[in-house]
């Protein structure tokens, strides 16, 4: 009787987690527990989650386990289940100390659940906070998990969350440059939530052999794409502020150049610079190795000179619906050794600029001195065609 009372109390606490919110506040799929808790009863549950997967202010794994949900496996994406692994670092399987649940890494020896993994579960839950960019790997994990579910006859339950960069901009990926940081023919910012993106994956036949994954989506309540959304939990070690999240679509392409984006500092994706820009800019920073964030960052232990965007009004990028490519144009113009600017080998970058921008034209355009307007014009008609295609998969206005 006592155990039953504790479970009922915990259930009340998590289902009432958002009741104190003001009327018409955005309520994530995870927070609407009454819509899916009955569906989990009697099922063996697998969860693709990380530190952003919360109900109220508590881990969704911890919350659901506390009310008797049978979670038999946790699947961890890049940065791991608790979100403390460095960018690009392989993550090992483990047992979660707090819950005792096995954690199966999908960013280490394998990137997709095996048949053996899927045989252990009846239902997979996907609950990750995405940031709306082609090169942010959550959508790749989504596709692989959908594929595993389709191949093994399992349903995928998505607890949807808002997109903080819910606009559409950038060149559509030329599939010649398909890679681990660009798997789909979409622009840099795709303007979809994870739930909507899952529908697009099914609808466009992007899974192997055009498999179809059975989906159940718990929609975000009181949400539209026009709403500004500030993330309650940092989605990864190097997106540690709302400012970095908003600047990420514009600054991540610099990973295909000699320019540091601040990895190796506590202000990543809010600064840009390189040692050879000394004398061109007054602002400077020094990347160092930081465990759990960036080991061996570009230009480690060297003073980098460039742009300080920490106080830049990044919200206007969201409001305008455009990434900023002028910073790339300006820094290329200022860089003294232009032959090295886009040299990915020299910069130790994570993929060449083609992989980041999705086209081999962008580098040529910047080197030729084309204007921002001219470069943007080259993104058509692909960008407009994508916007039209996207409409059929929307869950929110």
UniProtKB/TrEMBL annotation:
One of its GO terms (molecular function) is peptidoglycan beta-N-acetylmuramidase activity. Residues 45-242 form the Peptidoglycan beta-N-acetylmuramidase NamZ N-terminal domain. Residues 246-396 form the Peptidoglycan beta-N-acetylmuramidase NamZ C-terminal domain. InterPro entries: NamZ (IPR008302), NamZ_C (IPR048503), NamZ_N (IPR048502). This is DUF1343 domain-containing protein. It comes from Mucilaginibacter ginkgonis.
């Amino acid at each position: 009787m006592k155990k039953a009372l504790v479970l009922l109390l915990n259930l009340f606490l998590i289902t009432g987690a958002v009741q104190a919110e003001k009327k018409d506040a955005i309520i994530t799929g995870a927070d609407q527990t009454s819509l899916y808790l009955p569906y989990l009863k009697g099922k063996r549950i697998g969860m693709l989650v990380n530190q952003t997967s919360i109900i109220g202010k508590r881990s969704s794994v911890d919350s659901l386990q506390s009310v008797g949900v049978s979670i038999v496996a946790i699947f961890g994406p890049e940065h791991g289940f608790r979100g403390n692994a460095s960018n690009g670092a392989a993550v090992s399987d483990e047992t979660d100390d707090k819950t005792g649940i096995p954690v199966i890494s999908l960013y280490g020896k394998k990137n997709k659940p095996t048949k053996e993994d899927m045989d252990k579960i009846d239902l997979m839950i996907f609950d990750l906070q995405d940031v709306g960019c082609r090169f942010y790997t959550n959508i790749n994990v989504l596709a692989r998990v959908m594929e595993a579910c389709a191949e093994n006859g399992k349903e995928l339950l998505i607890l949807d969350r808002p997109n903080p960069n819910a606009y559409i901009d950038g060149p559509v990926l030329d599939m010649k440059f398909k890679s681990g940081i660009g798997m789909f023919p979409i622009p840099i910012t795709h303007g979809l939530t994870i739930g909507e993106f899952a529908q697009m994956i099914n609808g466009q036949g992007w899974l192997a052999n055009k498999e179809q994954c059975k989906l159940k989506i718990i929609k975000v309540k009181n949400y539209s794409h026009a709403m500004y959304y500030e993330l309650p939990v940092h989605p990864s070690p190097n997106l540690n502020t709302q400012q970095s999240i908003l600047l990420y679509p514009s600054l991540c392409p610099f990973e295909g150049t000699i320019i540091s984006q601040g990895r190796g500092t506590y202000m990543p994706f809010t600064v840009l610079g390189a040692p050879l820009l000394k004398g061109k800019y007054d602002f400077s920073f020094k990347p160092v190795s930081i465990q759990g964030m960036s080991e061996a960052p570009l230009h480690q232990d060297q003073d980098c000179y460039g742009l300080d965007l920490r106080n830049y009004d990044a919200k206007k990028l969201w409001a305008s619906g455009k990434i900023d490519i002028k910073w790339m144009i300006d820094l290329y113009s200022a860089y003294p050794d232009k032959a090295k600017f886009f040299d990915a080998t020299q910069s130790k970058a994570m993929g060449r600029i083609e992989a980041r921008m999705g086209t081999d034209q962008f580098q040529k355009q910047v080197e030729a001195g084309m204007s921002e307007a001219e470069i943007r014009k080259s993104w058509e008609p692909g960008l407009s065609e994508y916007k039209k295609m996207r409409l059929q998969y929307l869950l929110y206005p």
